[in-house]
Amino acid sequence: MVVDVTIYIEGVYSENTSVLAVDNTAVFRESFYKLLSQKLSPPDFNLIIQPFGSISQTKKYLELIENHKSNAVVLIDLDGPKEKIPDRLARYQPLDTTRIFFMIQEMEAWILSQVDKIEEFGNTEGLTRKKQDQDIASNPLIKNKHPEEIEKPSEKLKTLLGQYFESVKIVRGQQKIKKKQYSKAKDGPKLIGLLDLERLMQDFEEVHRLIDYIGSIEVEG
User: Distance between CA atoms of 50 and 117, rounded to whole angstroms?
Assistant: First the structure.
């Protein structure tokens, strides 16, 4: 029996209103599906990725899950260390908080945990690698730090991409070389789609818990 499982994920928004949000949403869906399908076999379930832009909508989706008694979970940024989980969960009681899973501290922590995928992203995006003799993993921003302990990982990722990669743009017919600017809406999903889920499960307890939870839904179905 194929089981429908919906994952409501915080994270899609555009820094630029002129950017078509529908395109960002499509890439976001595809990337998370690609990542989670590494462990969750598509023949056994119908995985539905439903992104939403603001963490303020979390309660709304929890209520939707309860009202429809659906096989669904909510995946959101914690925006803090894992010690903050109890406080965050308390905000949503008496709703079923077992349906909430956290990206600690942000989605970008997942990306920073796999520096080799950042290098792969640079290659696939046609970026120019600066500081060829310097390994990103040796940068003081992330060196010898567990990815869950990196504060404001989105800012760290932005800094690292700017330090190690350049992009070429044509402006008024002239070639301009600029340091790579990180876009959460455009680049974040692409990077997520490159990640290794097994390694994420080893580095992030919440990722392991999410996969186990969805697996139990499949079995029950």
Answer: 24
